[in-house]
Amino acid sequence: MKNKNLRKILYVCAVLVLLVLGIYVWMRSSGGGIVEEQTFTIHGKQTETFVYNTKTETPRMLHVKVEGELDCDAILVIKEDGEGNSVRFRRSFPLKAGELKDRDFQTSWTHSGMIIEFKANDCVVNNIKIVIGVEK
Asked: Residue 118 class from Cβ within 10 Å (0-12 exposed, 13-18 middle, 19+ buried)?
């Protein structure tokens, strides 16, 4: 009788320890969500460049959301705004023609400064919004 009760107690304790460890690891990996967000709008241009310096010194993730409608294919490039002429960190996001309501990208990013370049191939772009969110 004692042996069965002891096994039950040890099993419950082991499950509780694993649950607490799982919650701890999940909390550490989630990072707390988007802490800073900036919106850029493109209207009546084929190419556009923005410079964005976050207030977060060491971001962890970058969330890029593009809203609007494109008449032609385009590309969105985010580069590190580093000192000097060399570009060391870069992410490219191809955008197909059509409505961009569900275009949401996530990527790792560890720099506070960035240059955002938007280039459309063969058309002038109207009312495209680029929302950049930084996660710490």
From this structure: buried
